[in-house]
């Protein structure tokens, strides 16, 4: 339970409101933010959780005319034009501007905690039917997917269409040029290197798109007797290693725009081109997305000639770290397994397998966006908390 309010007062010539809580702590709120965030029906549409107040109607220098504490659970403010606003204690507490409170709110919204791993990965496993039928299991799946980056769902039917069901469970799948789902098999005249029986080096899918899919699903329908093992590596863990081992290489890969290309025909005909940095970083220099697929990296390279060799040296060092025995985890999917993983973080590959007169290995693949996955996670959490 959020503590009640003991005292409220205006500071800084009315530009700031200070709230003193019953637990002895205090919070300060700028008046311009309070006016902008008014929750009354004129300023806010509850049915859409959306602001109605127009920015052109907001005075950035606004001050509070009157501040009152009707009871310990809310404050009221009267503005110079006579407009009145009320703010609930719990609502205010969550939106405190202290560094600690902001970090807590961001953690609650985006679950930034990561569990790094290498060859020692204990691959998390959850039965597919539990995820489909039980909200606690579905919530556990998505939380683990966000934290660890990979979860294996077991016991799905060995037929196409199970990923469509999984897509409906979270909301919807991501449509790409390869269709709503796609079949990974050894195909004649393959339009993608995945549709061969050869070895696939570590990569993330679809860096040729400006917004690559955040999550990937691969459902094993048929598995070859020899070869075809899957390999994964925690790209964020490797990025941390590279940053420590060779900061210059990390800087090159996180600042150089690399050209990607994908041209062909599948769900429809396509000619896609994009520039991506191999490592996307946030304001603190931490990796937030890896965009690396050697197969679709273009021969066009839009950098000065003298920077080419240093780039290749940096990329080779990164690639060597990805492939080191201490970092990669190898496993073999069984028919009915669905591996779900973070396509922005986990790079995946495959060992080669023998070709045959008929299809010996068949995976169905699909994508989802992190926005959809995180939306379902928050809704599941809200439902479970209400039940408790």
TrEMBL record:
Q: Does the keyword RNA-binding apply?
A: no
Q: Name one Pfam family in it.
A: GBBH-like_N
Q: What's a single GO BP term from this record?
A: carnitine biosynthetic process
Required cofactor names: L-ascorbate; Fe(2+)
Q: Which organism is it from?
A: Furnarius figulus
What EC number(s) does the entry state? 1.14.11.1
Say which family it is in: Belongs to the gamma-BBH/TMLD family.
Is Signal among this UniProt entry's keywords? no
The record's annotation in CDD domains points to:
CAS_like (cd00250)
Q: What does this protein do?
A: Catalyzes the formation of L-carnitine from gamma-butyrobetaine.
Give the keywords, sorted: Carnitine biosynthesis, Dioxygenase, Iron, Metal-binding, Oxidoreductase
Under InterPro entries, the record lists: AlphaKG_dependent_hydroxylases, GBBH-like, GBBH-like_N, GBBH-like_N_sf, TauD-like_sf, TauD/TfdA-like
Which pathway does the record list?
Amine and polyamine biosynthesis; carnitine biosynthesis
Can you say what this protein is called? gamma-butyrobetaine dioxygenase
Cross-referenced SUPFAM superfamilies, in alphabetical order? Answer: Clavaminate synthase-like
């Amino acid at each position: 339970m959020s503590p009640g309010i003991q005292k409220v007062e205006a500071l800084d010539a009315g530009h700031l409101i200070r709230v003193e809580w019953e637990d002895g702590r205090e919070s300060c709120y700028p008046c311009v933010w309070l006016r902008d965030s008014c929750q009354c029906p004129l300023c806010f549409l509850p049915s859409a959780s959306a602001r109605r107040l127009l920015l052109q109607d907001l005075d950035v220098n606004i001050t509070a005319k009157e501040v009152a504490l009707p009871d310990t659970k809310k404050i009221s403010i009267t503005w110079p034009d006579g407009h009145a606003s009320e703010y609930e204690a719990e609502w205010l507490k969550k939106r405190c501007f202290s560094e600690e409170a902001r970090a807590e709110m961001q953690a609650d919204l985006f679950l930034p905690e990561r569990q790094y791993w290498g060859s020692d990965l204990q691959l998390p496993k959850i039965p597919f039917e539990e995820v489909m039928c039980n909200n606690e299991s579905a919530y556990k799946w998505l939380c683990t997917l966000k934290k660890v980056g990979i979860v294996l769902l077991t016991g799905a039917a060995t037929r196409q269409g199970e990923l469509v069901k999984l897509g409906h469970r979270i909301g919807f799948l991501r449509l790409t040029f390869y269709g709503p789902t796609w079949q990974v098999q050894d195909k004649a005249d393959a339009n993608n290197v995945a549709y061969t029986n050869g070895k696939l080096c570590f990569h993330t899918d679809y860096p040729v798109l400006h917004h690559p899919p955040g999550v990937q699903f691969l459902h094993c329908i048929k598995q070859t007797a020899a070869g075809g093992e899957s390999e994964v590596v925690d790209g964020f863990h490797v990025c941390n290693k590279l940053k420590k081992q060779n900061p210059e290489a990390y800087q090159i890969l996180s600042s150089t725009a690399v050209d990607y290309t994908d041209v062909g025909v599948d769900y429809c005909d396509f000619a896609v081109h994009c520039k991506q940095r191999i490592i996307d970083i946030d304001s603190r220099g931490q990796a937030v997305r890896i965009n690396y697929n050697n197969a679709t990296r273009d021969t066009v390279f839009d950098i000065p000639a003298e920077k080419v060799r240093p780039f290749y040296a940096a990329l080779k060092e990164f690639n060597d770290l990805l492939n080191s025995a201490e970092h990669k985890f190898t496993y073999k999917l069984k028919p009915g397994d669905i591996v779900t993983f973070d396509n922005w973080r986990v790079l995946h590959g495959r060992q080669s397998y023998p070709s045959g007169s008929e299809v010996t290995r068949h995976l169905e693949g699909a994508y989802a966006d992190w926005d959809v996955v995180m939306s379902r996670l928050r809704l599941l959490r809200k439902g479970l908390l209400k039940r408790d």
